[in-house]
Amino acid sequence: xxKGIPASPGIAIGKAYxxxxxxxxxxxxxxxKEEVSKEVRRFKRAVEESKKQILKIKEKVREKIGEKEAxxxxxxxxxxxxxxxxxETVKKIREERLNAETAxxxxxxxxxxxxxxxxxxxxxxxxxxxEDIAERILHNLLKRPxxxxxxxxxxxIVVAHNLAPSDTASMDKDKVLGFxxxxxGRTSHAAIMARALEIPAVVGLRxxxxxxxxxxxxxxxxxxxxxxxxxxxxxxxxYQKRKKVFLAYKEKLESLKLLPAQTVDGREIELAANIAGPxxxxxxxxxxxxxxxxxxxxxxxxxxxxxxxxxxQLEAYKTVAEKVYPHSVIIRTLDIGGDxxxxxLPVPREINPFxxxxxxxxxLELVDVFKTQIRAILRAAQxxxxxxxxxxxxxxxxxxxxxxxxxxxKNQLEKEGVSFSNSxxxxxxxxxxxxxxxxxxxAKEVDFFSLGTNDLIQYTLAVDRVNEKVxxxxxxxxxxxxxxxxxxxxxxxxxxxxxGACGEMANDPLGMPVLLGLGVDELSVAPTSIxxxxxxxxxxxxEETQRxxxxxxxxxxxxxxxxxxxxxxxRKIRKILKGExxxxx
Length: 585
Ligand code: PEP
Ligand code: MG
Description:
By secondary structure, the chain is of the alpha/beta class.
């Protein structure tokens, strides 16, 4: 069994198909002076051929999958036009009289050397793109067909070092049961594509291509991030059972789509979805989300060499606003930094990135980038119900400054005669302890709060949310967290503003009822979790969660709170989630 990163949920069982981008041998030779022009022409023809192929794939993707996925290929096309790659190669052919294949390979290698020092996920992604492009040019130089997933004869599980957008785009979707790759993270192209296509996937397995032989049976467990190679008959039976249970359960949950997220004693909770881009909205709406409670816009800035323009952002925000209407979408402004990601922005390496230059801090300094985003949000707001939310707020000054910039943008738009909506509600994430403690002050300045429990827990307990070493200290039910949330909700309600929760705690079977009991008004969870959360909400009484929450506030340790909750509702909720509870409506 190999462990990797769960990239797209579900279970797939099938035969491995190794996508081997053959490491063919490149002949290295020098050319004669009089052959130089011919060699340059040969290289440029291969580049042109590659461009044509990519344009064709791009069109196919636009038709079959969507605009955003098609745009991934734009960065491929820009690599093909990048003087660094093309002109450097031509220069090498001319000056060193190298054959085109060798010149191209040397240029790619020198890229790799030069950028090795800045090892960010963004740079790594760019390298994979460049490698993919270089490989395509080489194939075209050598006139060899490129191995592809477009004409598959049977159902397979794709095992690859990396899946480039060009691989997934031309893929025969009905035949591919799952993905398993050596490299990549949750934000790699392969992972994003797998989720968009709803194909179970595990990425970042390091050496799955070396461990699996073609045709071997493998199980891809996209929920837990595992790949089982050559499973025993009993493992296959057990996973088949899990898959069946999962599918049957999913089908059963579907009946809840149109029902309200209402407790047995009539308290209605807004149940919205967290999304990372327009491609996830359909899934959210299909699952009955009452709007989008958190649109993480940073994904729009990732995996690309330049910032998204105002028009591009407008298009994305407008699509989401229109699709969720008559519900609303809360667009969170850029939240880059911390463990996130890669972007074309000049974010320096920091010793403590989580406490560094991230969220609203970055936007308040990169004012032009911030203003462009706000312009796009305000303009998109004409097409639906749009709210704006600022991340990582830690002081009143930040809120005032952000609101001031918002006002400036509105004035500017008015001056330019550009139409926009003037009635966009403004909220902030409560995810830093300082903001939680002065929630009474902040509540006077904004229209709503959303509890970012992922960060709030990390900062309050001083536990890095991505560090496995301290994972046992990451306690959503720590008395401090519960007291903090309690005081935030009370402060908000005193000012008549609502409070949502969009961190993972809203999705946690024990944490979610506590949030309800503490008075949280809205929950926002992953699109694929909506129905499950709704099921739990519809099985519990608000009054009971309030009683439980009030007792929890009197306890002193995480162990006590957990034990109390387990005893009160733990077993019941597990039964509800397994579909065994007759009380569940
Ligand atoms: C959070 O911190 O809880 C949150 C929802 O934001 P993110 O996970 O994007 O930091
Ligand atoms: Mg956060």
